[in-house]
Q: What sequence folds into this?
């Protein structure tokens, strides 16, 4: 959570590797698959590119980023697009989300977290090739033809309104203002389009001399990570609720990708890949705040809070989302003029939007862990019955305020009370103790086992399972001396 500026990348559809399908748009024949990127497409992408970088934590700098760019441009050449190497912009994003996507004009993105999950260069090329395939097939333009009036935030709002608030105009207006996390800023594409991009990515892998089966293995790792995340967050299944997901479980695409690849072999470049990503930041960037279990800590903003039991958090660039069966919330900030009551009312007004006169019935003043605080509740009649929206704001030093916006079924806001009461300042010592985790590539020594190396993972829970998923190892696979593997360590 680094910045809180509101923005919407109006009608610029993101093409995502990790996203599942959305009904109504077919893959169909690939139009102009080798046509050069047009001037219009280039201008559209150039306009959206800076905003998109801001939404996903900015670019990750250094040698790892240069390597990702090199692999991406090399695989782009296989698409047949004119001047592909010069026409594509490949960015490594400083984001802890497992995702990759593209926008028109040849702008390709992958997060450092997804790169960390990969185990060879062919997998990286496959993911980036998938995105090149989206661009070559003009999937964004075809998607926009179906949803010209959707902004990214609007699409996210519609997801929540359909699940929690019904399809009423009240629900859609409320949710458009409520959803601000970057995790909710992607339009989904049809299953056939995703499969078509997989197929093109596999084709490009083969042309470049890579093992085309890498597309299937990276999808396997992503499916395993989804399952691990579900387990760690206390969810019953690996599918993140549709209203809060940017990467539904890709397990269903794994077998299709492997079948398309067939028995053809090729280069993996495993050791090269591992040596080039050594030292890559893993998980949350402390500059954006970190999630540790149910606690969120931000060393720069000097704040911390704890999510309620049974809820899980997702850290975005402009907000922290807190999600559970009984409601959703976000922690963010807004302009503050020193009057906390005015601040609370402005948040309600912002959530309601210009077409919805949203205001609390009353505002109460309190103190939370020494912080001046105020809160209010508004009841909204939506398509699925009444819901309560709570805005709970806190005054910090340096004329700064932060707030939770929480929505639940009417009368069930108590689920968030422990979280509201957990907001606190953190000490300089606590802030200094928040350090980044990084990938450390090690060579397996004689006598090393999965269990012994897992104990070096910088986590207090699920160490072995984290190690296996990170290295693409099945539940019974072992390691051998001389093999390179990844562990996660804390930087000091």
A:
């Amino acid at each position: 959570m680094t910045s809180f500026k509101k923005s919407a990348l109006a009608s610029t559809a993101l093409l995502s590797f990790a996203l599942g399908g959305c009904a109504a748009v077919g893959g169909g024949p690939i139009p102009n698959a080798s046509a050069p990127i047009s001037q219009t497409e280039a201008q559209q992408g150039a306009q959206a590119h800076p905003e998109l970088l801001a939404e996903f934590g900015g670019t990750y700098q250094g040698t790892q980023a240069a390597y990702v760019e090199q692999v991406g441009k090399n695989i782009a050449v296989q698409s047949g697009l004119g001047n592909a190497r010069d026409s594509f912009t490949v960015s490594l994003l400083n984001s802890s989300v497992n995702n990759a996507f593209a926008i028109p004009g040849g702008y390709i993105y992958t997060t450092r977290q997804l790169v960390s999950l990969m185990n060879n260069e062919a997998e990286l090329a496959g993911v980036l090739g998938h995105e090149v395939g989206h661009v070559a097939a003009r999937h964004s333009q075809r998607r926009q033809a179906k949803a010209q009036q959707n902004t990214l935030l609007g699409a996210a709002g519609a997801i929540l309104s359909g699940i929690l608030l019904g399809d009423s105009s009240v629900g859609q207006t409320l949710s458009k203002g409520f959803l601000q996390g970057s995790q909710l800023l992607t339009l989904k594409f049809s299953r056939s389009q995703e499969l078509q991009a997989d197929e093109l990515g596999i084709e490009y892998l083969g042309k470049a001399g890579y093992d085309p089966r890498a597309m299937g293995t990276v999808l396997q790792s992503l499916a395993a990570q989804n399952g691990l995340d579900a387990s760690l967050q206390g969810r019953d299944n690996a599918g993140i609720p549709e209203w809060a997901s940017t990467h539904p479980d890709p397990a269903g695409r794994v077998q299709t990708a492997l079948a398309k690849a067939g028995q053809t072999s090729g280069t993996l470049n495993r050791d090269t890949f591992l040596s080039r990503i050594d030292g890559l930041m893993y998980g949350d960037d402390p500059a954006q705040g970190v999630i540790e279990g149910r606690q969120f800590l931000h060393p720069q903003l000097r704040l911390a809070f704890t999510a309620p039991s049974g809820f899980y958090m997702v850290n975005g660039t402009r907000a922290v989302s807190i999600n559970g069966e009984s409601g959703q919330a976000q922690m963010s900030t807004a302009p503050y003029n020193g009057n906390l009551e005015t601040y609370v009312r402005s948040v309600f007004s912002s959530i309601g939007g210009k077409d919805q006169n949203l205001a609390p019935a009353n505002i109460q003043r309190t103190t939370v862990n020494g912080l001046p605080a105020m809160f209010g509740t508004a009841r909204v009649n939506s398509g699925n019955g009444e819901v309560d929206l709570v805005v709970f704001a806190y005054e910090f030093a340096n004329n700064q305020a932060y707030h939770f916006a929480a929505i639940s079924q009417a009368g069930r806001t108590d689920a968030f009370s422990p979280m509201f009461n957990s907001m606190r300042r953190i000490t300089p010592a606590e802030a200094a103790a928040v350090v980044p985790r990084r990938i450390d590539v090690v060579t397996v020594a004689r006598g090393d086992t999965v269990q012994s190396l897992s104990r070096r993972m910088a986590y207090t829970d699920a160490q072995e399972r984290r190690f296996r998923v990170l290295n693409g190892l099945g539940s019974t696979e072992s390691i051998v001396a001389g093999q390179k593997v990844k562990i996660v360590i804390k930087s000091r």
Remarks:
- The domain at 437-490 is CATH 3.10.350 (Membrane-bound Lytic Murein Transglycosylase D; Chain A).
- The CA atoms of residues 81 and 359 lie 53 Å apart.
